Automatic annotation (TrEMBL):
A cellular-component GO term for this protein: RZZ complex
Gene: ZWILCH
Regions of compositional bias (Acidic residues) in chain numbering: 58-73
Function text: Essential component of the mitotic checkpoint, which prevents cells from prematurely exiting mitosis. Required for the assembly of the dynein-dynactin and MAD1-MAD2 complexes onto kinetochores. Its function related to the spindle assembly machinery is proposed to depend on its association in the mitotic RZZ complex.
Intracellular or extracellular location(s): Chromosome, Centromere, Kinetochore
KW Hydrolase (keyword) present: no
Sequence segments annotated as region (Disordered): 58-82
Family indicated by similarity: Belongs to the ZWILCH family.
Domain of life: Eukaryota
Coiled-coil stretches noted in the UniProt entry, renumbered to this chain: none
Pfam family, one: Zwilch
Native source organism of the sequence: Nothobranchius kuhntae
Any single biological process term in GO: mitotic spindle assembly checkpoint signaling
Subunit relationships: Component of the RZZ complex.
Protein name: Protein zwilch
């Protein structure tokens, strides 16, 4: 709660690291796909796994320690990656803490502070394939009266692949409709070299 409060109050602060591996980013809701549907015009907090970044100043150190074990070096320095998800367990835990922080019944909570909506990126490791958890305070005036919870799941394509014909089935269907024994190439042509024409009211028949 204190970390989110700090991010909320510090306008020039856009991100911070919580614990050892959790990154919290403050951004516009339009930049987050699921939040774009609900929180388009407001700031949101996005929680994801913190990613190690290789600093340019470390290049010389890598050269000087080239005799070190490659596996050990690989654990320390990783190339910059895109956003990484948190485990479902960790995501649920963060969502629970956030919900409690907005609960007016909890004595330690500052009831006058309304946090930005929270969106947690998940690793889809549960049976439902959860990709995002979201939470948004519901306010009446300046007081929080509840919290909306969102779950975004993704199980892959929604189209039933069984409905499509396979390549082998397509080939067999083609053979049924076009039997090789009944197919052949045959052609004929008839040419009219002179045609029929009328010359001074005289009709000339083609030969």
């Amino acid at each position: 709660f204190n970390v989110l409060r700090c991010l909320l109050e510090e306008e020039n602060m856009d991100s911070c690291i919580y614990g050892e591996d959790i990154q919290i980013i403050k951004m516009n809701g339009s930049k987050v796909a699921p939040a774009n549907l609900y929180c388009d015009n407001q700031k949101v907090f996005v929680c994801e796994k913190a990613v190690l970044k290789v600093r340019e100043s470390d290049d010389e150190q890598v050269e000087d320690t080239s005799n070190c074990d490659d596996d050990a070096a690989g654990d320390v320095l990783q190339p910059e990656q895109g956003p990484q998800p948190l485990t479902i367990t960790k995501a649920r835990q963060l969502l629970s803490w956030y919900t409690l922080s907005q609960n007016a019944g909890v004595l330690v909570v500052d009831n006058g502070l309304v946090l930005h909506p929270l969106w947690v990126r998940c690793d889809m490791s549960d049976p439902a394939g959860t990709a995002w958890f979201g939470a948004e305070p519901v306010c009446m005036g300046s007081k929080v009266t509840g919290v909306k919870l969102y779950t975004v799941t993704c199980k892959g394509s929604t189209v039933d692949k069984k409905a499509f014909i396979t390549l082998e089935e397509l080939k067999q269907e083609h053979k049924k409709r076009h039997h090789p024994t009944s197919m052949g190439i045959k052609g004929s042509a008839r040419f009219n070299l002179y045609g029929s024409s009328v010359v001074e009211n005289t009709f000339i028949v083609s030969q």
